[in-house]
Design a protein that fits this description.
The chain is an alpha/beta fold and 219 residues long. It has 2 domains: 22-97; 104-218, Rossmann fold. It has 3 helices and 6 strands, in the order αβαβββαββ. Strands 1-2-3-4-5-6 form a 6-stranded mixed β-sheet, with helices on one face. Helix 2 packs across helix 3. The longest helix has 76 residues, at 23-98. The protein is rod-shaped, with a radius of gyration of 55 Å.
Length: 219
């Protein structure tokens, strides 16, 4: 028997969706989906990198701002401290100018001479009393009289050339004073101490000591 060769030409329309001819189309779709997924990942990564870059730039800007603020506050703090130190130094200098040295004024040693007996127990001086000591005694005597007291005698004790003992009428004891302190403030301290002792019914004492500013002692 002879065989007849037949050539059959098939068209694309001859492939239905249920046959094997559907496989090329599915493959193309799958490849397309894969490409889309890969493309999507690439866009996401780019977006993340961009966001990270922006965040880092913002963080650097924030750190720079903080550093600038810290430097500014430090400079302001030092400036304020410098102003305070200048003011304190200025006030200290003014207080030193206005404060008398050892509470002694020129008035203490001018135009005053004692009228009471002055006894110098220091053998080394030969009984010679300096002009400064004489003026101080004369000033203190005048201050006592101004407060109603009557000085009777002054002694310069042995071993002391800057201290005097004042004796007042009506009192058995004496008052220790020093020429390194103003006579007026010393006499005022002595008056306050005498009146305080009188309020405590103490009228007899061995001595009153008013040589130290702001303090007074008695025995």
């Amino acid at each position: 028997m002879g065989h007849k060769n037949e050539h059959i030409q098939m068209k694309d329309s001859d492939f239905d969706n249920s046959g094997k001819g559907n496989r090329p189309e599915l493959a193309r779709r799958r490849m397309h989906r894969k490409s889309t997924i890969v493309s999507g990942r690439t866009i996401g990564e780019k977006r993340e990198r961009l966001e990270t870059k922006n965040e880092r730039a913002a963080a650097r800007k924030k750190d720079k701002k903080k550093k600038t603020m810290r430097v500014s506050f430090t400079v302001i703090g030092f400036a304020i401290l410098a102003v305070i130190l200048v003011i304190l130094c200025f006030n200290f200098i003014n207080s030193q100018k206005n404060e008398p040295i050892n509470e002694v004024t020129i008035e203490d040693y001018t135009d005053y001479q004692p009228t009471v007996e002055v006894l110098d127990e220091n053998a080394s001086t030969g009984g010679k009393i300096t002009n400064r000591m004489n003026s101080y005694i004369g000033q203190a005597e005048a201050d006592f009289r101004a407060l109603g007291y009557n000085p009777t005698k002054v002694i310069i004790p042995n071993g002391f050339i800057r201290m005097v003992y004042f004796y007042l009428e009506g009192f058995n004891g004496y008052i220790k004073m020093t020429i390194d302190r103003g006579s007026a403030v010393s006499v005022e301290d002595a008056d306050r101490l005498i009146r305080y002792l009188a309020s405590q019914e103490v009228t007899d004492f061995e001595y009153l000591d008013v040589r130290t500013p702001g303090k007074a002692y008695w025995k």
